[in-house]
Amino acid sequence: MTELIRFEGVSKAYVSTEVRTHALRDIDFAVSAGEFVSVSGPSGCGKSTLMNLLGLLDFPDTGEVSAFGQRFTRHEEGAMTRLRRGNIGFIFQAFNLIEDLTIQENVEMPLHYLKVGTQARRQRARELLDQVGLSGRLAHRPSQLSGGQQQRVAIARALAAEPRLIVADEPTGNLDSRNSEAIMNLLEELTRTGAALVVVTHAPELAERARRRVRMQDGQIIGVDGPAA
Ligand SMILES: Nc1ncnc2c1ncn2[C@@H]1O[C@H](COP(=O)(O)OP(=O)(O)OP(=O)(O)O)[C@@H](O)[C@H]1O
Predict the structure, then answer these.
(1) Which residue has its alpha carbon closest to ligand 1 atom 18?
(2) Beta strands 212-217; 220-225: pairing state
(3) Which of 18, 48, 144, 216 could make an SS bond with 41 (beta carbons 3.0 to 4.6 A apart)?
């Protein structure tokens, strides 16, 4: 299987005036094409930090990152942004949709960054919103939709640029059980399209659906269930 991203000996600390918090300690981790991986562990164990690094939003203090065929030994903002926009989709607990834009415009956003033409952008956004069952809501604003519907928009947005990797941070965290179930089904379907999905979650019912389940504690990976990468 094609390897998309690999961390070797990755560590990351946050330094404030008083304390130094070791958020990640010597992590080795890789994700291959089409995988469905869950990451769980207690609050503060480093899950969000790991997701930020996976999403090429941040860079480790020490260690090496290889992503989409490129090897980084230091923070290279431009290259990381380019790789991120072309290869990675994001889904957040708080949906993170832009209220000033319609649902359709929100889904078009990643394509806008990639300079895809207006017509192609619109068409792709409509197709995706149709796939997530929201074709009747194209001109609505995010706040006019339920939480479950907003998360479906966020999933459509994450898929817009046909990413090879999707990172999701507590995607069902703000949803009731019925909406969570619908979102979990949608995420599972998404892994059948060939994209890799890495999901951080406290919810055992979501974590258990993943083929590989990573457990973290105190900035370290303490266990992996399922096939090794
Ligand atoms: N910007 C920051 N500045 C200082 N410390 C931070 C910062 N971000 C995270 N930390 C600390 O790093 C550690 C790991 O945080 P992280 O957010 O990755 O954990 P988490 O597992 O995602 O937690 P949660 O489940 O509560 O979201 C924690 O001790 C946290 O307090």
Answers:
(1) 46
(2) antiparallel
(3) 216
Q: Confirm or reject: Cβ of 17 under 6 Å from ligand 1.
A: no
42 lines ligand 1 (CB under 6 A): no
Question: Which residue is closest in CA terms to ligand 1's atom 5?
Answer: 14
ipTM: 0.94
Strand order in the sheet with 88-92: 88-92, 165-169, 196-200, 36-40, 212-217, 220-225
pTM, entire model: 0.91
CA distance 6 to 43: 24
Give the pLDDT of the chain (229 residues) as one tens digit per residue: 799 999 999 999 999 888 899 999 999 999 999 999 999 999 999 999 999 999 999 999 999 999 999 998 888 899 999 999 999 999 988 889 999 999 999 999 999 999 999 999 999 999 999 988 999 999 999 999 999 999 999 999 999 999 999 999 988 888 888 888 888 888 888 888 889 999 999 889 889 999 999 999 999 999 999 875 5
Ligand 1: centre distance to CA 207 (Å): 20
Q: Which atom of ligand 1 is nearest to the CA of 45?
A: 21
Nearest CA to ligand 1 atom 17: 48
3-state secondary structure 98-111: CCCCCHHHHHHHHH
